[in-house]
Design a protein that fits this description.
This protein has 262 residues and is α+β, with helices and mostly antiparallel strands. The chain folds into two domains: 105 residues, no CATH class; 142 residues, no CATH class. Helix content is 33%, strand content 18%. The chain is built from nine helices and nine strands. The strands form two sheets. It has a five-stranded antiparallel β-sheet, with helices on one face. The longest helix has 16 residues.
């Protein structure tokens, strides 16, 4: 089924390989590229890992396993020497043990946070990966790979609570924010959000929800832009007075209770 969890996983990893990491795929295929790929899948939390060395040769099998909706999966591109720093990594795993909610992430590099082409490519990947799904939440941040959202951190929200209430309250906001269908409707829908002039791009997802890109580049996501995004999304953000968490010193947020925004 096109909207099944397994199909969503296939879209996520396919978009990563054919879009986000296309240069790494080409480098691996070329002679002397210095790039190697590998992937693994954990069918169930109690199962052993199934490995797929040199993913180019085993991609059809990898996708077949993804379609069965495994507990965890990962695609990694490394240097030929196997250095610790990943050149690119996409992964997924079940956040809740019953599989009702799962998380997918991708790590990549951009030329710089003010390079429009690199930034657009990352956003295009996320759109391609999520189009056809109805996601609970998503975001893109520069140099921030914490699975907690900014509001989870500064409101001290438990992750499980944040996930369970994800279609009641938007989990956070960032340079790119994916808003679920239920909350986008409360904000007036994609057309109203686009007409607001707050966002650089507003991209509706076919199966529900909308991707909101605040500025053309990551560097352009200034505090002033963040403030406008916060005020626009405030009607669907969780209430509470945010405060910095010393354990997460780089978390960006507007120091205002969303419930006070009129």
């Amino acid at each position: 089924m096109p909207g099944s969890p397994g199909a969503s996983l296939v879209r996520w990893f396919r978009a990563a390989r054919t879009g986000l990491y296309s240069g790494l795929v080409e480098a691996e295929a070329g002679s002397g590229g210095g790039v190697v790929s590998e992937a693994h899948i954990v069918p169930d939390i109690d199962d052993s890992v199934r490995r797929f060395p040199r993913i180019a040769k085993t991609w059809p099998q990898f996708e077949e396993e993804l379609a069965a909706f495994p507990w965890g999966a990962q695609l990694v591109f490394l240097t030929e020497g196997g250095e610790l720093d990943d050149l690119g990594r996409a992964s997924s795993y079940h956040v809740l043990s019953d599989g009702s909610i799962w998380r997918a992430s991708a790590l990549t590099s951009v030329n710089s946070p003010d390079d429009a082409a690199s930034c657009t490519a990352v956003v295009d990947f996320l759109y391609a990966a999520l189009d056809g799904s109805s996601p609970l939440y998503g975001h893109i941040e520069w140099d921030d790979f914490d699975e907690l959202s900014n509001l989870d951190i500064v409101l001290r929200r438990r992750r499980r609570t944040s996930l369970r209430e994800g279609r009641q309250f938007l989990r956070g906001y960032a340079w790119v924010t994916v808003c679920p269908a239920e909350l986008a409707a409360r904000l007036g829908g994609a057309a109203v959000l686009e007409d607001s002039g707050v966002f650089h791009r507003v991209l509706p997802l076919r199966a529900g929800g909308v991707l909101l890109q605040a500025s053309a580049t990551m560097d352009g996501y200034t505090d002033q832009v963040m403030e406008r995004v916060f005020e626009t999304l405030a009607p669907v953000l969780p209430p509470g007075e945010p405060s910095p968490d010393p354990a997460h010193p780089y978390t960006r947020f507007v120091p205002r209770d969303a419930a006070t925004v009129r």
